[in-house]
Amino acid sequence: VQLQASGGGLVQAGGSLRLSCAASRRIVSINTIGWYRQAPEKQRELVARITTHNTSNYVDSVKGRFTISRDNANNMMYLQMASLKPEDTAVYYCYALMDKLYWGQGTLVTVSS
Length: 113
Prior knowledge:
Number of strands: 11
Radius of gyration: 13 Å
Helix content: under 10%
Shape: globular
Distance between the termini: 37 Å
Number of helices: 0
Strand content: over 45%
Structural class: mainly beta
């Protein structure tokens, strides 16, 4: 599967962004899809994931601010981000867990204070 992430940009603290990830194949059968992020000089961390049963999990730092969703009909997933903080600044990568992890190319989110 190929994944194409988009929607990043520059936003002020407290603002919102919605990231999108388009998949090249049907995602309805992919059990787990989600988003990682990597901030400068930090390790990549799992931000959110969602299963085919629409069970979602979030890293503690984004709970209550970010919402992950999937649109199986259009082979898309989204990450709605609200109340953004400067520490959310990172490159965000969508992924799909199948026989292995498949990554999108990343989209940069910059949150200014």
